[in-house]
Amino acid sequence: MGSIVAFINQKGGVAKTTTAINVAAQWAHNGKKVLLVDLDPQSSATRSIFGDMDFENTIYDVLTGELAAEEAVVASETFGFDVIPSEIMLSGIEIILASKFGRESILKRGLAEIKDNYDIIVIDCSPSLGLLTVNALIASKDIVIPICPEYFSLKGIELILETLKNIHQGLGHKIDVRGIIISKYRNRKIVEKVINDLRTNYTIPVFSNYIPDSIVVEEAHHNHKPMLQYSPKNPAGQALANLAVEMWA
Ligand code: ADP
Ligand code: MG
């Protein structure tokens, strides 16, 4: 795993945020120094971790160049890692960045100063392949793609791969797709068929620890706790813990 990894899928509700914060919490629990960057204007990761707390300094200020990344970092004792929070203002940032020189690498430059303070930086992306996500891609060495296994998820993966190809050709940055994360898994025939198609049609590995569908995952968000604290013995909690180990290998 490279030192910066982005959780990417332009589809919403596929458990990007859920896997990002729980895998990050598990890595922190296992002794790694972790930073999570919330790059989604909807701020789901920030909300799940900190509840309704408001932050003076966010990733927005870092991207507009008004603040050093270090000054936007807040620590979460419960999750065991550092966070650069997001805010709703981020929804307007693409317009601001569009006219800036080197607009695709603003996040990369911002994180460069603090990168060495961490074993790993996790970027939780928004459901889009716009300039914010391109910034995450340029900053990252590796990406992982969380999906809910359904027919349409295959088309979505093709779009992500196309974007990676364009970035490689246009900007000379090669990104390694470490794997696909199967989330909200149910043991059904059609689900198995989709996963099978995935394994045969693409060269991307699929992580072997699927995260089962469980209402406890939703409860953990509401309680602002990682699964390893809220319900470590729950099958989804165990799968997330095992996934963290699998991803690190
Ligand atoms: P994304 O970041 O891709 O939009 P989220 O992580 O916010 O997705 O998840 C979307 C919704 O699905 C949330 O309400 C979350 O609690 C729920 N969810 C995520 N993973 C699971 C799971 N394994 N089982 C049940 N619900 C889940
Ligand atoms: Mg999200």
From TrEMBL:
Gene3D superfamilies: P-loop containing nucleotide triphosphate hydrolases. The lineage of its organism: Bacteria, Pseudomonadati, Bdellovibrionota, Bdellovibrionia, Bdellovibrionales. Residues 3-175 form the AAA domain. Pfam families: AAA_31. It comes from Bdellovibrio reynosensis. Signal peptide: none annotated. This is AAA family ATPase. InterPro entries: AAA_dom (IPR025669), DNA_Partitioning_ATPase (IPR050678), P-loop_NTPase (IPR027417).
